[in-house]
Design a protein that fits this description.
Layout lengths: L3 H4 L4 E6 L2 H18 L2 E6 L6 H7 L5 E4 L15 H16 L4 E11 L27 H7 L6 E2 L12 E9 L2 E10 L14
Parallel strand pairs: 1-2, 3-4
Antiparallel strand pairs: 4-5, 4-7, 6-7
Bound molecules: S-adenosylmethionine.
S-adenosylmethionine binds next to strand 1.
């Protein structure tokens, strides 16, 4: 989901994924362009959330992007714990650690079977029916109606990721032709952080 052009805005990138294959995919998709542009990058295989305190301390002025990660939190709840309780606690901890940072996230909000959208449309950014959607009022009813949801949809329990006034963007994504994800993207500008001075060019 990371556009190479967006990555090129940074001077330095430290990426983390728990899947050993992710580093090869990242290098394959972005490596040549980053090298040509002189962007320094390092890929770490490991648990980014468990390592977050150390990463934040090692990169005190870095922006943080949680890239399509938080929507999966509920699946990591231990069998004995309600996924809603587990996810709420994890999100609160992540937000506490990121307080004062400039950070963003793109994550699943809802997913489920839908009859009304064609996978041919690729990866559309939804045309919002809300003039300025925020984390507090994010649901794009027009998109949901057009999708013609069928059956039961999954709540990924990520409705409380951003502070209420954060501008958000909805994204419709076809996991399969008849099974869609409704994602949310947003960027939190910490008032005490004017820019990512060390790790980005912008
Ligand atoms: C939906 S995929 C998104 C992949 C990629 N970030 C993108 O946006 O194209 C979710 C990714 O999160 C990774 N992941 C899940 N839990 C993680 C964790 N605790 N630390 C690091 N990576 C994790 C998975 O290995 C998987 O590659």
């Amino acid at each position: 989901m990371l556009p190479t052009e967006w990555l090129l805005r940074f001077d330095s990138i430290h990426a983390v994924d728990i899947d050993p294959l992710a580093r090869w995919l990242f290098a394959w998709r972005h490596g040549a362009a980053l090298k040509t542009a002189g962007v320094r990058w390092h890929y770490q295989t490991g648990d980014a959330l468990a390592d977050l305190p150390r990463l934040l301390s090692a990169h005190p002025k870095a922006c943080v992007l949680l890239d399509n990660l938080l929507g999966q939190l509920r699946f990591h709840a231990p069998a004995w714990q309600d996924p809603a309780v587990y996810t709420a606690y994890q999100l609160a901890e992540i937000k506490r650690m990121l307080h004062g940072r400039e950070w963003g996230s793109v994550h699943d909000l809802l997913s489920g079977p839908a009859a009304g959208l064609s996978a041919d449309v690729g990866f559309p950014v939804a045309q919002s029916s809300v003039s300025s959607p925020t984390a507090e009022h994010p649901v794009d009813v027009a998109w949901l109606a057009a999708a013609q949801p069928r059956g039961e949809w999954l709540d990924h329990l990520t409705g409380q990721v951003f502070p209420a006034t954060t501008p958000v963007q909805g994204i419709a994504w076809a996991f399969r032709a008849k099974y869609w994800h409704w994602l949310q993207a947003g960027w939190v500008h910490a008032s005490q952080v004017s820019s990512c001075r060390v790790d980005t060019k912008s």
